[in-house]
Amino acid sequence: MGFSLSRSVLRLATGAFILNQGLSKLRLDRDSATGLRDMTANAFPQAQQLAPETFGKAVAAAEIGLGAALLAPFVPTRLAALGLTAFSGGLLAVYAKTPGMTESDGVRPTQAGLTMAKDVWLAAIGVALLVSRRPRKPLKTAKAKVRKIAK
Which of 54, 82, 105, 122 is the least crowded, having the fewest Cβ atoms under 10 Å away? Predict the structure, then answer.
């Protein structure tokens, strides 16, 4: 896919944010890792099977990998976008299934849920990157039209 300033800006902003989050999770203490694992288990019960330290390191590694993929220009945009969309979908599932995060309608965030509600922007950016099209090359398009008319 050709260079696109808009895609590059989206990848840079989200990649730097997610990479920073992952790096900060490398130093999680046991209590923080337990809280993260237990919150995740609201949406994904299998998370309870992991030791808190293992879970914290796995999340850190996933965030570092995803952030690096978004920042690396040689990683195809659609591949990085697929990772971002899947990851943010998981975050939104945790948001939706954790008691006290949403109002009674299950969508609007409570005060406690505001910090996780921002993840909807990550999902939107992931989808936008997924569906963005390759920029057309005007010269080739114009030449093709001229050839078509000339026939």
Answer: 105
Partnered with residue 102 across adjacent β-strands are 109
Q: Where are the domains of the chain?
A: 5-150
The number of beta carbons lying within 10 Å of the beta carbon of residue 112 is 12
| Cβ count near 140 (within 10 Å) | 9
Q: What is the pLDDT of residues 117-129, one digit of tens each?
A: 878 999 999 999 9
Of 75, 70, 64, 109, give the one whose Cα is nearest residue 1: 75
Distance of alpha carbon 124 from alpha carbon 122, whole angstroms? 5
| pTM for this predicted structure | 0.81
Rounding to the nearest 10 degrees, give the CA dihedral for residues 57, 46, 37, 121: 90
Question: What SS3 state is found at 102?
Answer: strand
User: What's residue 3's pLDDT?
Assistant: 73
Other CB atoms within 10 A of residue 144 CB: 11
pLDDT tier for residue 137 given thresholds of 50, 70 and 90: low
| pLDDT for the residue numbered 145 | 75
Residues 6+ apart with CB under 8 A from 33: 52, 53, 55, 56
